[in-house]
Each structure stands twice: as structure tokens, then as C-alpha cells.
């Protein structure tokens, strides 16, 4: 089994959880965190003792098979010290030193030394609003198949295979659209770089500086795009060996999962921030049922409309003309749909979205949403509202659908972030919409 070299963008809880899980199971796995220069002092990053090339042989899987690394070793000159509650380690605790490369110094290549190594698999685990800029920062390092063979011999498979970007962040649908012009053809496999979407229900947070807590074991879903099944299978196997509980989904299945997750995020994140409550406490808010229905109705209509566009999502390729199609409307409102296109694109109905939102709230009832923590956590951070409710608003406008409930939530979160409005929706008067 070949280990695919992985570079991880994003040193937040999920990026570090992935790196720690993989390195704990496979100590010589060729994986490295990519950090920016200003993160040197914020994290406990130290010079690696004699680390130049990392990625030797000798690991074995559960069947005792010897594992070898891929053709591109991971160079690193720094390490990030992490203590975490590894559920698979003796005693449940473990301290690791994770390989680190800094983007500002060319991947740690010496000034007169070799060029920064190429990136074959890039795992993007940043905040949604940071994803595009982060990908742009390493775009010139992505492996791109040669346009023409350099000799009469065909290139080896690893040279011919394009680089792969795996999006493991909230707002993946929005980020995918953002990257469309940056990486033409990536989503459908026709470009020089492949793009795969991923999502996880694993929970993790930092309890202190470099002290990672794996708070909840969940499930990870990885999209298996056209022409990448072999690579996807290797990734799924390695991630499962590392305890990340991964399974591959078809693009249609992944689309359904991500629209459901977007719906849950559009409801839970802004409303918990406005009401200043845990996820479970939302269910006790008198106005919550109506607010939820208004938000989900808009998300479902936009999702159904998106399901009638061309593969590239462009407005010019609407298959049913400019009017909102009957089939899509039936799908959005939970009715039956005769449109095979909608089914093939994995568009969940509003009933399915509502069920998923309720299940998510009950499963995470004691949690405080990431947006709540960004706003009220004592260290104000930019939120992902533009890639959640904002994405629904923008997507709706492109196809002639107004989304006042989601648009109002964007305005309220912007006001909360600016510290100019702390009033919850339940204190407003009017029709009961999110805007009051």
C-alpha cells in the first residue's frame, strides 16, 4: 500500500487532529502542516532535530502488510508539539511532534538549495473565508501532469496523476464555487488539478496552547470524483487505519450530505449566536420553529434550483429555462419530483433538511456552535456567515430567488460581530421572520 504524501493547510483543531491521527498510527507517514510565518510564535514550533527528509518505510497496517511511502518525501525543518487525548493510545494520552513547513520561506527549502517540494495531495482544513487565499499561496507547488511527454517513454503513473485538493471545511459548497475560476475543470476531473469535497462529524478543540481534545468520534465522508477511485480507496483505507472512520461517497451522495450540512449550519450557527445559547437550548426558544422553517424553505428552494443547472453551476446552462421549474419546487417542498436530474444531483427536500437539523441539534445539544465561539468567545474572530447563509443568498440571487430570512441573518451576524446589535430575534416584532 502506497502512502499518499499529504500537505495540510490549516493548523486549527481539525487540521491538527488529522495530522496527529495519521502520524500516531503511521509514525513515518509523509504528512506536514503548512503554517504561515506569523504562526511561528503563536504555536510551540521548534526546530526539528536533524529532520530533512521524512517518510521512511517500516509502518504496517492491521494485516501486517509493509507500507512504503509515495515518490515525494516530506521535507520539514520545524515541528509542532501537540498533546492530545488519543483514544487509541495506551492510557488515552499521547504527545507528538508534527512536521511543519512555513509558507513564507518556500517550504523550508534552503535559500540556495532545492526548490520547494511539489504538493500531490492538499488537505484544506482552514476556515471557509481563508480557503481561497490559502490555496492561492501554494498554487505553484501543485503537481500538474506534463502537457507532453519529456521523452519517448510514458511518464510514471505518479507523474501523470494530477494533484488533488481535498476540501475539509465548513461551507465546502461555497468554497468549491470560489475555486472554480482559480482551478478550471477541477470539480469534474477535466482540469489539471482534481478537487474532492469532504466533511466530518469528528469534534475537536484546543483546551490550551497546543493541547488538542478529540471531543467526539464521528464519521468522515470523502467524495470519490470521476477517474480517482484508486486514489480515493487508498485515502479511505489510510484514514480508517488512523481512526478517522472514513467512507467514500459518489458526487451525488456527497451533494446531499453537504446541502443537509449547509442547512444545519444556516440554522444553528447564526441563531445560537443571536440567542447566545447552546445548540440544544435553541429548541426551547419560542420563535425557533418558525425561524427554522423560513430559513430551510429558502435553502431548499435554492438547492433545488441549483440542481437544475449545468455541471459547472453556471446560470447560462439552466435546463428548464429561467422560470423556477415545477419539479424543483416539488423537490424543495418535500413533494414528489419526476425530475431524474434532481435525484442524480442528490438534492435533499426541506423535510430531509429539517430532520437533519433536528438530529444535529440533539447530537450536539451541549455544544456551542463555531460561530457563537467566534463572536462571543472572548477573542473575536471573523465568522463563516458569508459562506453559509451568505452563500444561500448569493446563489438565490443568481437564479432569481429572494432569501430574506437568510439575508437578515447575515446582517444580524455582521452587527453582532461589529458589536452594534445584541438583541435576539425573539425580542423583535413583526411576522416572525429572522429579520423581525
TrEMBL record:
Residues 255-415 form the Ketopantoate reductase C-terminal domain. It comes from the Eukaryota. GO terms for cellular component: cytoplasm. Keywords: NADP, Oxidoreductase. Residues 316-330 have a biased composition (Basic and acidic residues). The keyword Secreted does not apply. Coiled coil: none annotated. GO terms for molecular function: 2-dehydropantoate 2-reductase activity; NADP binding. InterPro entries: 6-PGluconate_DH-like_C_sf, 6PGD_dom2, Ketopantoate_reductase, KPA_reductase. This is Ketopantoate reductase C-terminal domain-containing protein. Residues 308-350 are annotated as: Disordered. The keyword Ion transport does not apply. Transmembrane segments: none annotated.
Amino acid at each position: 500500500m502506497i502512502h499518499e504524501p499529504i500537505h495540510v493547510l490549516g493548523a486549527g483543531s481539525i487540521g491538527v487532529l488529522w495530522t496527529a491521527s495519521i502520524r500516531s498510527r503511521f509514525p513515518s507517514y509523509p504528512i506536514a502542516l503548512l503554517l504561515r510565518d506569523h504562526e511561528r510564535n503563536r504555536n510551540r514550533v521548534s526546530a526539528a532535530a536533524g529532520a530533512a527528509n521524512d517518510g521512511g518505510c517500516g509502518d504496517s497496517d492491521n494485516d501486517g502488510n509493509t507500507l512504503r511511502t509515495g515518490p515525494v518525501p516530506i521535507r520539514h525543518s520545524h515541528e509542532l508539539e501537540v498533546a492530545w487525548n488519543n483514544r487509541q493510545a495506551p492510557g488515552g494520552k499521547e504527545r507528538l511532534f508534527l512536521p511543519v513547513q512555513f509558507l513564507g520561506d518556500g517550504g523550508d527549502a534552503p535559500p540556495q538549495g532545492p526548490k520547494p517540494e511539489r504538493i500531490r495531495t492538499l488537505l484544506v482544513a482552514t476556515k471557509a473565508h481563508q480557503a481561497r487565499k490559502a490555496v492561492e499561496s501554494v498554487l505553484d507547488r501543485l503537481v500538474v501532469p506534463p502537457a507532453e511527454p519529456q521523452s519517448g517513454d510514458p511518464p510514471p503513473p505518479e507523474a501523470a496523476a494530477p494533484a488533488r485538493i481535498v476540501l475539509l471545511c465548513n461551507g465546502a459548497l461555497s468554497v468549491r464555487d470560489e475555486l472554480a475560476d482559480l482551478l478550471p475543470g477541477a470539480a469534474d476531473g477535466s482540469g489539471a488539478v482534481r478537487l474532492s469535497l469532504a466533511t466530518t462529524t469528528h469534534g475537536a478543540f484546543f483546551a490550551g496552547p497546543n493541547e488538542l481534545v478529540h471531543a467526539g468520534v464521528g464519521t468522515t465522508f470523502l467524495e470519490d470524483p470521476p477517474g480517482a477511485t484508486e486514489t480515493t480507496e487508498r485515502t479511505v483505507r489510510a484514514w480508517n487505519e488512523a481512526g478517522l472512520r472514513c467512507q467514500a461517497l459518489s458526487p451525488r451522495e456527497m451533494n446531499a450530505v453537504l446541502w443537509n450540512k449547509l442547512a444545519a449550519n444556516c440554522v444553528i450557527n447564526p441563531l445560537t449566536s443571536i440567542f447566545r445559547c447552546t445548540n440544544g437550548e435553541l429548541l426551547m426558544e419560542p420563535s425557533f420553529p418558525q425561524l427554522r422553517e423560513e430559513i430551510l424553505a429558502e435553502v431548499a428552494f435554492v438547492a433545488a434550483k441549483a440542481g437544475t443547472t449545468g455541471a459547472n453551476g453556471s446560470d447560462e446552462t439552466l435546463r428548464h429555462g429561467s422560470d423556477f421549474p415545477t419539479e424543483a419546487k416539488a423537490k424543495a417542498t418535500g413533494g414528489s419530483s419526476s425530475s431524474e436530474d434532481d435525484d442524480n444531483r442528490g438534492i435533499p427536500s426541506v423535510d430531509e433538511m429539517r430532520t437533519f437539523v433536528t438530529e444535529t441539534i440533539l447530537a450536539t445539544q451541549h455544544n456551542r456552535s463555531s460561530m457563537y465561539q467566534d463572536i462571543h468567545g472572548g477573542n473575536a474572530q471573523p465568522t463563516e456567515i458569508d459562506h453559509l447563509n451568505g452563500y444561500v443568498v448569493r446563489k438565490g440571487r443568481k437564479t432569481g430567488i429572494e432569501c430574506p430570512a437568510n439575508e437578515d441573518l447575515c446582517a444580524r451576524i455582521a452587527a453582532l460581530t461589529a458589536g452594534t446589535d445584541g438583541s435576539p430575534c425573539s425580542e423583535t416584532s413583526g411576522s416572525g421572520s429572522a429579520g423581525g
